[in-house]
From TrEMBL:
InterPro entries documented for this protein: SH3_Rv0428c
Every Histone acetyltransferase Rv0428c-like SH3 domain range: 8-61
Entry superkingdom: Bacteria
Pfam families: SH3_Rv0428c
Name of this chain's protein: Histone acetyltransferase Rv0428c-like SH3 domain-containing protein
Length: 80
């Protein structure tokens, strides 16, 4: 697993973590996005839709991932 002392804010990561008892969605979840903050207690990841704060004790796996590919232009419908 990735050591959080080796990463800096702004790097893109994927983090798998255990959900708290009673949370919907199964036993685990993933956060994919930009690392914002690392503290003794938690790691904050800015995903596409929200800032996710993950307790470090809940993290099972973490790794760096490449930057997201550039978005494509929307397709233009063909005129008939």
């Amino acid at each position: 697993m990735l050591s959080f002392s080796d990463v800096t804010p702004g790097e893109r990561l994927v983090v798998r973590y255990r959900l708290a008892e009673g949370q919907a969605g199964g036993h685990f979840s993933d956060a994919l996005g930009e690392l914002r903050e690392v503290t003794e207690e938690s790691v904050s990841i800015q995903t596409r839709t929200e800032l996710v704060r993950i307790p470090r004790a809940a993290i099972t796996h973490a790794k760096r991932v490449p930057q997201a590919p550039a978005r494509r232009r929307p397709r233009v419908p063909r005129s008939e």
